[in-house]
Structures are given as structure tokens and as C-alpha cells.
Amino acid sequence: MLIPLLALQVISLVYYVREHGSLTNYLSQVAEPSSLPSEQVKEIVLSFRDMPDAENDSYFLSPLFRFLRPAPPQVVEKGGVCGDRSRLLIALLRLRGIHSSKQALYNGQGQPTHCVVEADVESGKMVADPLFGLRFSVSQTPRRILWNR
Predict the structure, then answer these.
(1) What digits encode the pLDDT tens for the residues 93-116?
(2) Which terminus of the chain is more solvent-facing, meaning fewer CB atoms within 10 Å of its CB: N or C?
(3) What is the DSSP letter of 108?
(4) What is the CATH number of the domain that holds 132?
(5) How many domains does the chain divide into?
(6) What contacts 97, CB < 8 A, 6 or more positions away?
(7) What's the pTM value of the predicted model, to 2 decimals?
(8) Range of the domain at 62
């Protein structure tokens, strides 16, 4: 029982090292490390514009792990939906030390409908939509928008 678990850990480590190198290479091609964080977010998001926005059926190691969705390098290669691209953007920003998190948008029935990324940049918070190529700064004062029907 211990040997298969150890083998899976070694395989995962090799996969992680390969993934890290692939993402580092991609990032060096699309964003200058000396740029401001907001500029790096912009350049990375713009680099996604030619990626397919269809469902990516890739998976980590085995179809058994399909529920984990495609790994970031697989999204670079084959594209993906908003959640896939958001995870990729977060992974790339993490390589540059830029803190970010995925935010889900919900409809009136409480069902998730879209994902965006919130990043900490030099001017505060920035929201980036890696599917539609949008990005904007967020005011330091949180506001709640209420829609009247």
C-alpha cells in the first residue's frame, strides 16, 4: 500500500516541476517581470485572446482525476472556459508573487454562472476576466449593487 502512494507522490512531483517550467516559459513570453503588477495582469489576460473558449476535457494523470479539471499548462495548450482560465491566470500571477483569487459570479437563483480573478496590484484591487479579456481597478471602498426589478 505504501509503494503505490509513494509512486503517486513522485509522479506528482515530476509533473509539478514540468508544469512549473512550462508556465514560467509561457509567462516570460507574455509579460515583463519588471512591469507593474497591473500591467502584468493586462498582458497575461491579453495573451489569452487567441485561446479556444470551449470546454477543455484534459485531466491530471488519469481520467480518474477528471473532476480536478485541466491543469494550467493544458489550458495554455487547449484553452478552456472561464474557470479554467481563471486558475491559469492565478497560477501565472503566483509565479510573479502577485496575490490573486478566483471569484464566482452567481445568478438570482444562487447558481454559479461565471468566474473572474481579483488581483492585488500596486493601486489596490484589480478584477480581471480572462475569458472576455476585461480588467478594471476596484475602488478601495466596497459597494454593493442592488438591482431594482
Answers:
(1) 999 999 999 999 998 898 989 999
(2) C
(3) T
(4) 3.10.620
(5) 1
(6) none
(7) 0.83
(8) 2-138
